[in-house]
Design a protein that fits this description.
Number of strands: 20
Number of helices: 16
Mean pLDDT: 87
Largest sheet: 7 strands, mixed
Strand content: 15-25%
Structural class: alpha+beta
Low-confidence stretches: 1-22, 444-460
């Protein structure tokens, strides 16, 4: 395990001054800090805290060895504020009736139903490009929030420099209550002051899902707050007496982890009917996906003429056009031009998630290109992800990273990073996975002091 060590050295002190003068501290840390920050014993104790799933940590290590990275990612205060500014700009547009009318006209019919709730765990994913953070996509049922809270609680400071960066366990633990309150807010937006008593966490074959450990954490969270909670497959649900049931228990609210965003598949018919009849509160729901996460929305959000036609304020338009890579719809009319420009583009299915069926243009073959043109895709300008260097099995390597902002009602609740190799985040990269995000102070260390990695790399 790498450790920071304090060590006086004229050479290293000069390197620190040079780094501070030529680039932001976060960039230097991401490049030169090779230290392990996760305390695996603390992570094990946190994940195994509930007797019902006491071997969760061991199960994760055995079946999902690349779920958690052992290191942290660093961002600047300016990057954090810029991401929030872009998110606020998106929310400004989404709130407009003209935007909603235009986007819902192309959405499935079910998206026109407005039950009231906003939708939990919006995921705003950013690449940290040379021109600042770039919003590459938005997701409505963004996974990993509770896993990242557990990871935050298991961080340990390797040196004095790291201590102010790592949140106290109590601060990380407060997010549990914030998330619980988020579900209560969703409930009250549809049910008012009625009591919320039961929640079902629903996904297809939930125990086979890669993020099933998080389902267990949510079940644990809800039960700690006095709610009846169950993890269920949609096939286990039934509708009767104006309610949704799981076995012999009525369900008040469904935490929806399905990727059938419009509930179109036959196996989801019971949940669809209960949702449309308001027999259950569903979050997130099809309307939220249509307004935020359909990739065609990025086309509208980067179309300056359309934004001006909607009378969006110029500062908001500027934020969107400089903070979201230009995105256009793929169709036969634009196909020749897009093929010629493909090396600078990234192609995504409009209802895609998790990087599935997404392609870097420079990797496209003619066969795949025909599928892209005949399918429902958008083309987005490529923004190369920034990198985090780390040591894996004794060898230094650089992994790509993106930053996920978990949000609710326009407010960011949590930042987390995902480290990976390949075209998209995949949780298959040794040393990769979720990583906590720290925001170092730009002031640096007191004069005459320095911190050096165990590998001899200057960290601050």
């Amino acid at each position: 395990m790498n450790r920071f060590i304090t060590k006086p050295s004229a050479v290293n002190a000069a390197a620190v001054r040079s780094a501070a003068g030529s680039e932001d501290l976060a960039t230097a840390l991401n490049r030169d800090c090779l230290c392990v920050t996760v305390n695996r014993d603390a992570l094990r104790r946190d994940l195994d805290a509930d007797g019902a799933d006491a071997d969760l940590y061991r199960e994760i290590l055995a079946t999902r060895p690349n779920l958690f990275s052992a290191t942290a990612v660093f961002v600047t205060p300016q990057q954090v504020e810029r991401m929030r500014e872009i998110i606020r700009a998106v929310e400004t547009v989404v709130a407009l009736p003209a935007y909603r009318e235009a986007l819902l006209a192309k959405a499935p019919e079910i998206a026109r139903f407005d039950p009231g709730p906003r939708g939990v765990f919006m995921g705003y994913d950013f690449h940290l490009g040379p021109a600042g953070p770039q919003l590459i996509e938005i997701n409505t049922n963004a996974g990993g929030a509770l896993l990242n809270v557990a990871l935050q609680r298991a961080q340990s400071a390797c040196c004095e420099t790291m201590k102010p960066l790592i949140p106290a366990p109590a601060r990380a633990g407060a997010l549990d209550d914030i998330f619980h309150q988020t579900f209560l807010r969703e409930w009250r937006q549809q049910r008012g002051e009625q009591a919320l008593t039961s929640i079902a966490i629903v996904d297809d074959a939930p125990r086979e899902q890669y993020l099933y450990p998080e389902f267990l954490l949510f079940e644990r969270l809800f039960r700690r707050h006095g709610l009846k909670a169950v993890i269920a497959d949609p096939a286990e649900l039934a509708a009767r007496d104006g309610k949704l049931w799981h076995e012999n228990k009525p369900i008040d609210l469904v935490y929806n982890r399905l990727t059938d965003f419009a509930l179109e598949e036959p196996r989801h018919a019971v949940l669809r009917e209960a949702y449309l009849k308001s027999s259950v509160v569903l979050t997130p729901h099809p309307r939220a996906h249509a307004l935020y996460a359909d990739k065609r929305n990025l086309v509208a959000l980067t179309d300056d003429a359309r934004l001006r036609a909607w009378q969006i304020p110029e500062p908001v338009i500027h934020t969107l056009l400089t903070g979201i890579p230009r995105t256009i719809a793929v169709d036969a009319a634009h196909a020749p031009e897009l093929w010629e420009r493909r090396r600078k583009l990234f192609f995504k299915p409009t209802a895609g998630y998790g990087g599935r069926a997404a392609y870097r243009g420079d990797k496209l073959t003619r066969r795949v290109w025909d599928e892209v043109v005949s399918g429902r895709y958008v083309a987005q300008e490529q923004i190369a992800p920034s990198q985090r260097r780390l040591r894996q099995n004794g060898t230094e390597t650089a992994l790509k990273l993106d930053i996920r902002n978990y949000g609710y009602d326009g407010e960011v609740q949590l930042l987390a990073a995902r480290l990976y190799q390949g075209q998209t985040t995949n949780f298959r990269t040794p040393g990769g996975g979720f990583a906590p995000v720290f925001c170092p102070s730009p002031k640096g260390n007191p004069p005459g002091s320095e911190i050096v990695c165990g590998a001899g790399k200057v960290c601050k």
